[in-house]
Amino acid sequence: MKKIIIATHGELALGIKNALELIAGSMAKEISTYSLTPGKSATDFVAEIEKEMIDHPDQQFIVMGDMYGASVVNAMLSLVNYPNGVLLSGVNLSLALQVLLDGSEMISDESIDEMIREAQKGILRIQIDQIDLEEEDF
């Protein structure tokens, strides 16, 4: 069984979880979120995550952070040392939704890579010319 964790700067993680609950309903209730706010340290919640990973070695932990190279993801780098841990950066609603809706007990590396590619496809600059052309297609 997989455990989904979202950790971000500010309240972004809570916002993503809230959006997932709106889209996917009760499936999203079990997602854990961690928010780095002023006066808090990311290392505090990383210790909690590590303890949970150690206590549940047969459970896959999909941990998604917001920005590669920033303090939250950097603090979570140690999680990749656990065989049951997967660390992803650049979390967005599309990626989190794909991870949530995946029905498998453990998500394969290949599936995770495909989810990342699919999530990246949704990051676009939309211009007025594109909108006009797309409307003409219908």
TrEMBL record:
The family database entries (Gene3D superfamilies) matched by this protein are listed as:
Phosphotransferase system, mannose-type IIA component
Domain PTS EIIA type-4: where?
A: 1-131
Against SUPFAM superfamilies, the record matches this protein to:
PTS system fructose IIA component-like (SSF53062)
Cite the GO molecular-function annotations of the record. transferase activity
A single Gene Ontology CC term: membrane
Keywords, comma-separated and alphabetical? Transferase
Signal sequence range: none
Biological process, per Gene Ontology: phosphoenolpyruvate-dependent sugar phosphotransferase system
Protein name as annotated? PTS fructose IIA subunit family protein
Species source reads Carnobacterium maltaromaticum
